[in-house]
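Annex B. Sample input.
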Amino acid sequence: MSFQSPVRRALLAGAAAIVLSGGASAQDWSGFYIGANAGGGIMSSKGATSDYYGSPGDQSTWSGVVGGTAGLNWMAGSNVVIGIEGDFDWSGASDNTGFIYGGTYYRNKARWDWVSTIRGRAGITMDDAFLYGTAGIAIVGTSYKFCYYYTDCAPGGSDENASSTRAQVGLTGGLGVEFAIDPDVSVDLSYLYIDLASTTTHDGDGDVKKFGSSESVARVGVNWHV
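Annex B, continued. Sample output.
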C-alpha cells in the first residue's frame, strides 16, 4: 500500500541514523514506562464471501487511532534492550462498500472500534536512540455486516443479511525507533501490521458468510519512564 512506503522509509532513516552515530547508549532504557500515542492506519476489509456469492475484493479505508501505552524494558548488556509492551487504542476504521453480483446490488460494512496489542520488543541502542523489532498478538473490536442495498443491513431486513460483532484475536508485527529527549521522556515512532483471521457467521437462511480484515498502522508516542 502507498501508505506503508513513507513509514518504512522513516523507520529505515532512523535506523541509519543510529548506525552512523557509532556511539554507545547514553540512555538507561531499563524499567517501567507509560505513555500516549496517536496516528493513523489503512484498514483492508475482505468483504463477505460464501459458496455462491462473490466478493468485492479487498477494500481500503483510512482512519485515525489514539490511545495509551505501557511497557517494561530490560538492558541486556550495554546496548541491547528486550521488553514487553501493551497498548489500547480507539479506532475510527470503517468501510462501507457496495458491489454487484448476479445483477443484484449488495453492501459490505466493516468497522474496527478499538485495537489492543501485547508484544515483545527487542533491539539495539546507540546514543539516545533505540531501534527495535516487535511482534505479538492483537485483539480488535470488530463489526461486520452484509446486506441487500435497500435494507441498509437492518436486523431482519432480509434472509440474506448477516452480521458479526465480536472481539477478534490476530497477529501483529512491526518496527520502531524510540528517541530519548530527556532521561525520563522518549518519543516513539512505530509501524505495525495487524492481521485478523476470517470470522464466520450465518445469514437468515443459515448460509455461511465469512468476513476478514487487516490494518497497517503508523503511530507517534510519548513515553514517561518511571
